[in-house]
Each structure stands twice: as C-alpha cells, then as structure tokens.
Fold this sequence. Notes:
Elements: H1 3-13, E1 20-30, E2 43-51, E3 54-62, E4 68-75, E5 81-84, E6 89-93, E7 97-101, H2 105-122, E8 128-130, H3 134-138, E9 200-203, H4 212-215, H5 222-237, E10 243-246, H6 254-270, H7 273-330, H8 339-364, H9 366-433, H10 438-446, H11 452-469, H12 481-523, H13 542-548, H14 552-561, H15 563-600, H16 662-692, H17 729-742, H18 746-760, H19 764-778, H20 785-814, H21 828-843, H22 852-881, H23 885-908, H24 915-936, H25 938-954, H26 960-963, H27 971-979, H28 983-1000, H29 1007-1033, H30 1045-1060
Parallel strand pairs: 5-8
Antiparallel strand pairs: 1-2, 1-7, 2-3, 3-4, 5-6, 6-7, 9-10
Helix pairs in contact: 5-7, 6-8, 10-11, 11-12, 12-13, 12-14, 12-15, 14-15, 15-16, 15-17, 15-18, 16-19, 18-20, 19-20, 19-22, 20-22, 21-22, 21-23, 22-23, 23-24, 24-29, 25-29, 28-30, 29-30
Amino acid sequence: MSDGIRTAIISSLFPASSGEKLLVHVKVYKDITTSSDSAKGTPRYLCLTQKRNVLRLLKVKRSQNGAFSISRAWALDDIKQIHNVDAHQFSITLNKPYLWAVERGRDKMIFLAFLIDSCKRAAVRMPKLVNIDESRTLRYLADPSVPPVASLNIPNMNDGIIDDYAYAPSSPAGRDNSYPPSPTTSTSHPYHTGSTTNQILVNTNIPRSSNSLTESPGTASPKQLKSVASKSSLSLSTNSKQPTYLPKSSTLPANSSLNRLDDDHKGNAAESPQREERKERDRAREAKRERERREKKAQEEKQQQKKAEEIQEKMAEQASLMNVEELLADFNWKASGNAAALEKRLLGELHALEAANVHAIIQSDERVRSIVDYIDKSLTELDSMETWLSLYGAELNSMGDDIREIESQNRALQILNTNQQTLIVELDDLLNSITIPKRYLDSLLNDPIESVDDVIRIQESAEILQKVIKTKFDDGLQDMRAVQEQLETYNKYGNKFSERTFKFLKEQFEFQAKLYAEIKARSSPSNTKKSSPSQILAVPHESIEDNLIKYQGFNLWEKEMEPRLYSELQRCYAQAMAPLYDRDIRDLIDSTRAWYAVLRKKDMDDLEYVFKPEESRPVRALAYTSNLRGDDSRPHRYRHMLRGSVEGMMGGSASGRPSVDEDEKIADDAFTQMIQQTVSHVCREQNYMSTFFELTQNGSKSFLERGNVYSKVPNSAELYNPREKIRDVKVSKKILSWMEIIFETLESNLVNLLEYGVKSDSTQAVSMLASIENEQFKWEMSDQEFVLTVCKSLYQRLNRMFDNFIAEQVRIIEETKVSSKKRRGILSFFRTFPYFAMRMETAAINVQPESETRTIVSNAYEKIIHSMMASLDSIARESDQTGDDKEQLNATIMYIENMHHMYHTLRTNKLHVLEKWIKHAKTQYDNSLNAYIRVIIRRPLGRLLEFFEGVENMMRTNTPEEVSFHMNYNKTQLRKVISMYPAKEIKKSLEQLYKRVDKHFSEEEGLLQVVWRGIQEEFIRQHEKMEDLIYKCYHDAGAHLEFTIQDLLGMMSELARKVNV
C-alpha cells in the first residue's frame, strides 16, 4: 500500500485538529469465503487509531470521489476473539463475527501483531486467540518496515508508563517521530521514509532510574548523590538482559557491532528460501519453548521478586557507600559543589564516548562503508519502485472508477429497459381498460327498449360503459390528457343514455297509467248495486307492475349516474299513479258509504241503544203503570237481545229476514273490509315502488350488482307482506314524500267517510276504532310509515268523535227529569243502557282486552254508569226531601226496579266487562229490597212488631226475666197485643198487602213474585223471632202467637193461586 492511501486517510479523517492519530491500517475485503488471489467483495480499510490514551478499531470505506468515511467503530474491549482463518483471511468477533480477507498475507500478520500488542497493553481483558501463535506474530513488530512500538505511546495497564529507553525510534530529520507511517502492504521491499539506518539490538547498562538526574533540578544533598552513585554503579556492574534499540549515535563495542553486521550480510547473501523457511520454523519452535519456560518461571520469579528487591536494596546501599567517594573524587566533586554542573559534565562525557565509539566502528572496517552504500542504493531503488507502484495504484484506481461507472451505467440502462417494458404493458392495459367498442355505444342510444331481451342487451352495454367511467387509475394516469379526453367522451355517452332512459320511463309511466284507466273504465258496470262487505275489494295494478318491472335496472343506473334525474323519475311515477289510486280509494269508500246510508234512513227512535232526551221518548219508557202490562203492538227492535247473549245480535230472525241489528253489524263489517283493502292496497304500492326504484333494505346497491330482468313481478303475493324498517332516514323520508304524492287524497276521503258513518250512527265509531287499531298493530313494526301515519291520524279523529258522542250521552242522562207522579218504575237511561252496552260490545267484538279501543270503551262505560247512578241518586233525594212516607217508598221502589233491571239484563247477556257494575247493582238491589220489605210489612203487623222491638231493646239493658216486670212489656200487654192479630186478621192483612205490592211492581220485570217471596221469608223470620222472644222473656206465661208458620205459608200460597187465576 502506497503512502498516498495513508496520507489520504489522515487528511480525510484524522487531521491535526482532531487529536486522533493513525497507527496502522490494512486494506481488506468482506464476504470472502475462499482464499483466491483475486479480490472479491467491497474493499474496506481497517484502521487502528489513538486519541490520547484511548485506542479504537475503525472500519473505513472509500467513496467514488476518493473521500474516506468511517462506517463502524469499536473499542478494544469490544474484541472478544481474533481468529486466523488462513493465509489471506482472518475474523474478529465483536458483537458478531466479522470475516475479512487481504491481498497479501504479510499485511494481515503485521496488522494482527499491532492489534494483539495493543490489546495486551491497553485492553482490560485479552481477547481469545484462535489459530494464532502469539510469539511468532509479535515478531512482525521487529520488521524494519514497521514503525517502532515506542512511537505508539501506549499506556500499560500493569507496568505503568512504558520505558522510554526500551525502543528508540529511528527516523530522518523533519519527520514526525512520534507517529511514523503504518507498515507497507508490499512484501517485495521494506517500507522506509527518507534515509534511515538499520536499528541495532544491543544490551544497555543504563538503569531506568538514570533519568532522576535530570528530574531533580537545583543542588542535591550529598546523601542523595551517594544514593544515585551507588545505584548507577550497581547497574553498570550488572548485565541487563532487556534488549533495546539505540540510535546510531550510540557508542557500542566495535567488534560486536561489526561481527553482527558481517554475519547478517553473509547470512542474507547465502540463505536460500528453503533455509529461511526452516529457520523460521526453528525460530517458531524455539519461541514456543521459550514461552513455555517463561510461563513456568513466571511464578518462581514472582516469588523471588520480593526477596531480590530486598537484597538489591541492601547491596545498593553498601555499594553506594563504598564507591560514591571514589566516583566523586574522579569528577573533583566537593560537598559544596553544584549537582547541575555535575550532571551536565556527565552528559558531555557520555556523548563524547558515544561519538568516539561510532567513529571507531566506521573507521575500523571498510565493509561498513560498502554496506552503507548498498543500503543507500537499495533505498533509492525502493523509492523508485514505490513511485511506480503509486502510479500503478492510481491507474488501477482510475480504471476501477471507470469500471464502476460503466457498471452503474449498465444497471441504469437495464432499469431503463425494464421501465420501458413495464410502461408498454401499463399503456396496453390502460388502453384496453378505457376502450369500448362502438357497437356498445350505439346500442345505448339507438337500440329499442321494448322486450326483455332488448333491456338485457342495453344493460350489458351500460355495464361496460359504467365500468370504464368508474375505473380507478393509479397516480398520474388519471391526469393523462388521453385518459381525460377518453373519459370525457364516455361521460357524454353516459349522459345521453341517462336522458334517453329518463324520457323513456317517464313516457312509460304515463302510457301505462292511461291504458289502465281506460281498461278499468270499460270494464266497470254501469249500474252500481249495494254489494256485500266481502265484495269490497281493491284490485291491484298487476298489468302496470308487470310492464314496468323489467326496467328496474335502469333506475339503478339513474340512481348512480344522474341522482337528479333519479329523483325526478320517482316524482313522475308518483304523479302518474296518483289518479289511479284516487279512483280506487273512492270506489272502496263509495261501496262502504252505501251501508251507512241505510242507517241514516232510520228514525232516531229506532235506535234504542242511544240515550234520548225526555221529549223524544214515549211515556212507557219512563215508568211502568198498570196499563203497561197489556200487549204492546209495537215490537221491540232489540228485545231478543235481552233474552240471550251478545251472540244474539249476530243472527237472523226465524222468518229469514235480517234482524233489525244486522244493518249496524253489516256496516261494521263493510268498514272493516274497506279499511283492510285500502291499507293493503297502499302497502302493496309502497313495496312495489321500493322494489322498482331499489329503495329496499336488502336490494341491489349499484348498477353492477343489479338482479335479473323479469317479464313480470316475481312472487307478487309477497308485496302484501310487511317489510323491515328502513335504517336510512333519508331513504325513509323520500319514500314517505312519494307516498304522500300518490295517496294525496287518501286521508281526506277517509275522514269524510268517518264523519258520514258517525253521523249515521255514532256507535259506529267503536267498530271503526277497532278496525283501524287492528291495521296499526299489523303494520306497526314494518316500514309502512305512511300507512301508520294515516291510521294514527284517523284513530285520533275517531277518538275525538266518540268522546263527543259519550259527552252528549252523559249530558242527556244528567238532564233527565222525572215528575213526582212518575217516580216509579225503570228510568229511561237504565232501560237504554243494556242496549247501549250490547251495541258497544258488538262493535268491539274483535278487540283485544289490552287494546287501546277496549280502554276507550271501558272509559265510556265508566262515564255513562257514573252519570246514571248520579242521576238516580238525585231523583231519589228529591223524593226524600218532601218528607212524605209514600214518596220515600216510591224512591225505594225506584232503586229496586232500576238496580234489578240493570243487574238482570247485564248478567243475562254475559257482559263480563261490566262485572264490577253488575255486582254494584246487585248490592244496591238487595239493600233496597230489604228496606222495602221492612217498611211494607209494618201495615199488617205494626203493633205486634213495635211491641217485640221494644222487648228486644229492653233485653240490651236487662235480663230476659226482668223484661216481663216492665209496665209496658208485662204479660198482660203481651196477651193484649197477641189477641189483636188472630189468624183471620192476618189473612185479611196479607190480601191487602199483596194488592199494594202488585200495584207497586209490574210483571214485566218479574219483580212481583220476587218481592212477595221476600215478604214471605220476612214474615217467617219475624214469626220465629217473636216466638223466641216469648220463650225467653215470657216462658211461664203460656202465651203464643195465634197464627203459626204453617198458617202463614198456607195463606200466602192460597193468595198467590187466586191472583194467578
């Protein structure tokens, strides 16, 4: 390696300002697995550097412009193992093994010698050496071409500072002697700089402590001088075994120097390569044996070292005492002399001695001069060779740079060729992806769209066009002018196709709607007859649906490509279908209206289930009189209701003619059928429209995902089924807006029908509420938001109508007045309420118990019954206020008749929803009946009852025996009272009592027999009570009633038989 590489490395990486100096370097190649002479891999430079007392191992690389840079750096402590692989390769284990190869094996050995020596001196721990002879490797440090180790200035961790006299550098003047150049990598000649003489190995007798003379300035004491002199003499007398290199000015024995030079010269001339190799092996063996001997003696020397030091100190002291005076006498030293002058004199003597020795050597033998001449000629030749090698190296580096440049250009050409081929493929793919055959474009604009095959063909062409328009290009391709122009052209075709599709579908909507209206007008009968409820049917627009369904895919095209036209297309469809559905709804409503017209023709009096004011009700409805027991020529329209249950309202009469209540029932059924058909009609249309315009939850999301083309609607029956709610709020609102356009008049027409029906018969509101609530429940969890909104509005309106009707009924009940002459019998509203309840239950017969309609009807019952009870109490209180016993009795009779009528009719007709009020009526009836009987029996048994009631009161405060001693209740009074009521008198009183009861109660309600049976039981109870009191209080009087229980039963039975006859 030429000195130019070292200079370039130092100038690039280690300038003087950095403080770091290059010690040694070697050129290596990495990733070399064979020992081939040819260099492979990337060249690198391993450098050993020193900065102050820190040494580093660096890996340096060289760029193409010739600059050097550090790629990796390691401390010596990071080196774990050094492995000599073969003659040209070695590895160093740091954080991982690194394998390097060199061009010449000598370069490797020199670098390893420096690296191992540096590790021994500066590293904390010595790395492991594999396949390396340490002693033999360290010999390369003594190679003349290697800089002296002393110049490394390496601190020794064990021995302190390196001996300055161990190695003396040999360098020319003007050269930096501290850090000489690294060793050459050429094996043909030694590396040198300037004119340098060989270094000669000698034995020196100068001790290390000699420097102490220069280290102690000023005047020294005699004692110090004696100690120095003794040590110096001892050192001079002792032969030191440590070799050292002296400069050429040193004084050496002439014979020894000349003989060594002569032997070396002869040996170099006569030695052959084989002998050198053998000697090298012999030296290696000797070095190995020597190293083993040193290791054996190491421990002994350590043990003897302390003893030797102690003995040496004692001997030095004795020698110094013996020789110091003689030494000082030779130099004319006096005790008061100057130590610095003495030192200067000694140094002068030493230099003179050395000069004389060298001069003697040179003058003593002519061979030295010839050797020097040969050395000078060799150095000159080496300089010439090094110059040529530098030139060759520069040329090779230039050629290497050219080769790398050519290789780089070749790689660039290869990349360019690959890129161009890839570009051609990309352009071909691009052209193929954005090119559409002309026939597909013409098909979109010119082909007919009549049949299913036409639609399929056009949709396939549209699919190809859409794929091209929506193609996602890579970065940069989208901005290409050719691509943009092509896409712009195809976008124009897409716009034209969208406009054509929109215009065609709009015309189809209008044409199909017009055609359907004409066909329906021709098929409708001229005379409209009242049809049965089951014949009220909404005919679906199947012909329109089948003709339009094949164009379903075009809606997806418009939805993706032209959203504005898509929305406009839906609006056109809604406007075209609106007149057809308006006509359908009107037909359904007209069919239902006919049944309500029948009810409007009836008189208010015929509706016995509706409460009426007093002036509109016949006298017989207010109270029973004696003439009411005769036959009534006027039939009761709902009398059969009171002889059966709710089911009685649904049958016909024996003559086969519809019963009177069938008109209301048929009207209920007609409305239920109409609302079912209307809601189904609306829901079918929404389902079809959602499917046709692809607005369903699970429908196709894009034109490319469209389904098959159908000639008619598949599974048309499923259009009547509820569908899941639409999660997209925007889509849901859009469907609602289109439905509001199609069925714009639906709600208003239905409201008119509701008002018409309620005016015909207010109780129709209940059946209407039930029917609408059933439809709400059926479609509640579906996506039919429009239907649910309409039903909710109608339900609220009907609820208000029904509330108004109930409020009017309550007002009529509260305003009912009864004159004092008529305060007997069943009041008008109690007579009407059973019919009202039956009518309500008939209308709500299909209502669930937990439904809202049932709650409305139950609340209506509560309002009506509370009003009835309040009015009854009010009328009864008016009777009590007069203070007349007769009026009070009439009030009690009123309670008995009205509560019995309410209890009997409601229970007989099985109106379980009114169970609470049935029990209430029964309780009121029982209490009033008991009160009536207690009052009515006082006329035949007045004095007798009063006497025994007094006896009973006396027993509360007295014993039974004491009662008979009371003046008013003694035995005499007992006999007197008993004698007043003989059996004959009792029989006569019973006959008068029966006539009076018969006058109070009519036979229509069957109360006469009920009340008479109650009177009979009361007589028996009172007879038993009186007999018991006589036994307890008057048991020794021997008195008894003059009539027995058997007499009472016989008299009452005989009286009942006479009346029946």
